[in-house]
Amino acid sequence: MTVAPGPGYGQTTSHPQQSKPPRQAMAALGGWLSRGGTLPEPRRPAPGPADRGWLRGLRGEILAPTPAQGVLKWGLRIPFRLAQWKLLTHRREQAFDRALDARRDSDRRVLFVWSGNEPLREELDRAGWFGRLGRWPNLQVRIAPGCDHTLRSLAMQRRVHALLDDALEEELERERRG
Questions:
Q1: Computed over its alpha carbons, how large is the radius of gyration of the chain?
Q2: What integer best gives the mean pLDDT of the chain?
Q3: pLDDT of residue 104
Q4: Is residue 38 within 8 Å of residue 1, measured between CB atoms?
Q5: What CA–CA distances, in Å, run from 130 to 72, 101, 171?
Q6: Which region holds residue 149: left if phi is over 0, alpha if psi is between -120 and 50, else beta?
């Protein structure tokens, strides 16, 4: 078998010492071949356990888990996954509360406008968030009539614009008074 001398000859690499211009590489290759540049077959590494896994599986040395083992493993993961989910949900709620606390402390008004079937509103309702609204006197919640949570229809957009206009008027009136 005939091979090129050394790694990187004639190859494009990002390392400057391993790349040569094409003319120099061809000249070096030609000179090396003219001197009888043949090498023995390269040695292959001995096959490791990963290479023989399929063979061990065919011989029956590797056993697939039984359905009962799969169910047991899945069942043992459920409490961990639930605890992880509850922790993440709690952290998310705390971050949301901290953000609203910061708005309250800096005397900034907040207006939430949701449609009738907004998934986030339903999630907050299940978490009992609406029972704690007294904590944020700067927060107003408005429910836009309708059931399109992405506000695609022109009628929904007009309703939301009207609610925002009302909130801006209230804020301007508050600024005039105080």
A1: 35
A2: 75
A3: 93
A4: yes
A5: 39, 15, 23
A6: alpha
